[in-house]
Specification:
By secondary structure, the chain is an alpha/beta fold. The chain has one domain: Rossmann fold. Strands 1, 2, 3, 4, 5, 6 and 7 form a seven-stranded mixed sheet that branches. Strand 1, helix 1 and strand 2 form a beta-alpha-beta unit. The two termini are about 15 Å apart.
Length: about 200
């Protein structure tokens, strides 16, 4: 069994909806299961603390979730062409995993949602790739053999899944965007299982 960690931050809900589609894609691969986790918001008040368990949605991620996973799919809304601060804050705390090489040799992928159509989807995806490369992970993208990548009129890139949520964050995920989310999840799961099988042979 390969366990794929779908780790994301979502404020308006669009990235969380993408995470659900990606988790479904992971579980389309026989022998794989998704572990869905989120991160808390970063407070501007130093004394403020988030509750240990979120009021709704996925549980908060812990470093053990990363250490135990066979693959990682990382998601964030776009913030000026970059990943959101809460996700960056969480990743900044993974130095112990970097020192031990816990993530080296595992597959990883990225996904994002934006309010504007040309709002920095690709640069946000690349910003999330950088710490994954430092951890020694293998990056998995979306090939153009996925037909939806050529037919989409909203989100979707070869760098990872994306969604155009609109300025009011109410634009639903399109059929093409959902297909690409599921394809990305399945691809990472299948890659993880191939790597596991290769290590055993």
């Amino acid at each position: 069994m390969a366990e794929i960690l779908v780790l994301y931050y979502s404020r308006g809900g669009s990235t969380a909806h993408m995470a659900d589609h990606i988790a479904r894609g992971v579980e389309q691969a026989p022998g794989a299961r998704a572990r869905v986790r989120t991160v808390p918001a970063v407070s501007t008040v130093c004394e403020a603390t988030a509750p240990a368990v979120p009021d709704e949605g996925a549980p908060y991620a812990e470093l053990e979730d990363l250490a135990e996973c066979d693959g990682l799919i990382l998601g964030s809304p776009t913030r000026f062409g970059n990943m959101a601060a809460p996700l960056r804050y969480f990743l900044d705390g993974t130095a112990s995993l970097w020192l031990s090489g816990a993530l080296a040799g595992k597959p990883a992928a990225v996904f994002t949602s934006t309010g504007s159509l040309h709002g920095g989807q690709e640069t946000t995806l690349i910003s999330m790739m950088l710490p994954l490369l430092h951890h020694g992970m293998f990056l998995v993208g979306l090939p153009y053999t996925e037909r939806a990548l050529s037919t989409t009129r909203s989100g979707g890139t070869p760098y990872g899944a994306s969604h155009w949520a609109g300025e009011d964050n109410r634009t639903p995920i399109t059929e093409d965007e959902a297909l690409l989310c599921r394809a990305l999840g399945k691809r990472v799961a299948e890659t993880a299982m191939q790597l596991i099988a290769g290590r055993r042979s």
